[in-house]
Write a structure and sequence with these properties.
Layout: E1 3-8, E2 17-25, E3 28-38, E4 43-44, E5 49-50, H1 59-82, H2 89-100, H3 112-123, H4 129-148, H5 159-172, H6 177-196, H7 224-231, H8 239-252, H9 258-261, E6 269-270, E7 275-279, E8 286-290, H10 293-301, H11 312-325, E9 331-338, E10 341-348, H12 355-368, H13 373-380, H14 385-391, H15 396-403
Antiparallel strand pairs: 1-2, 2-3, 4-5, 6-7, 7-8, 9-10
Helix pairs in contact: 1-2, 3-4, 4-6, 8-11, 8-12, 12-13
Amino acid sequence: MAKAKFILKEPNSKVETLIYLIYNYQYKRFKYSTGEKINPKFWNKTSERAKESKQFKEYPEFNARLDVLENGINTAFRKLLNDGVQPNNANLKVELEATLSDKILKPNKLTFFSFVENYIEESKLNKKEGTIKVYNTTFKYLKEYAQKYRPIHFETINLEFYNHYLSFLRIEHNLSSNTVGKHIKTIKSFINEATERGYNNNYDFRNKRFKTIREEADTVYLSIEELQKIEELDLKASPRLEKVKDLFLIGCYTGLRFSDFTQIKPENIVSNNTVIEVRTKKTGQRVSIPLHKTVRSILEKHNNKLPKAYTNQTMNDYLKEVVSLAGIKELIETTITKGGKVEKKVLAKYKLVSTHTARRSFATNLYLAEVPTISIMKITGHKTERSFLQYIRVSQRENADKLLTHPFFK
């Protein structure tokens, strides 16, 4: 039996979230954006309608609109059957919108730019500051392109636009492949959200050739031996470098991001001072990490209260000084595709080290020590082994050395 129900897109949201109409029929599932939004605290999950609340005075009209939608999908389904047409998601959507055309206001027709502008403003309520910055930068490039070449509408975002826009970012702005890929990924997220809300019917952005470009970056990690060299440095004469050294080593032996390893507090040290337990800032995951002896020593040195960190950029500058003083100056050849051209440089290793090197070093060193991958992923937060293996830095030589201990080669 066909049945309609309404669900919230984000039932745990603290702000308004979209309502979807779900229609289960003939072992199929039809999903339709109602265009309606509600704060979950005003939603009755059992009745699938707004609660009768004084705080949400418009609930009668709101629920009436959902009733019209439910009656509309049932009418559309019956009409297809009566006309001898086998219902599917495509013709059900067409029939539903035809049924509703005179009974309910359709979502306002938004231009692509209007949607993006509204979406960025809306995202400020529930997304990180860094994400909003990425959104704004992508939007800036889109507006510049539209002004210089051609207007951008939902229906014009196709493979022709994609190829021309790639050239615009690569050649005119001399962006690296990974930066270009980040902007394409953001554009696709904008269009996907607009599609979910019923504003876009052009699916060219899902074509496999409309892809997010990614180039493996020349990132480095520091081995256990190199970390020991850093740990042995006597930097008491330079408090700023001493502080950076201590914080960086905490990151190298916990696998936490800069935003997390610089915020460790006494209450994060649990289980008789054997485990660090934190809720990560970026993902909100709670992770538990065994306390390494180096971490324990640094925490004791600061009475479990780590010194206040510099900004990430300042710390990266000072960190290069620390690693250089440790004598980590091996020459590394790097390549980057910028402006559509491959650029090669040879740099001393210390120049490639940043605060994020700590996290990569943690993951790579544990992997080389044959700690089970799943155990490392529990700390780093990687969802798949494939994404984890792309993250760690293991050279061909190190991989061969690791295999020497495998029974197959004995």
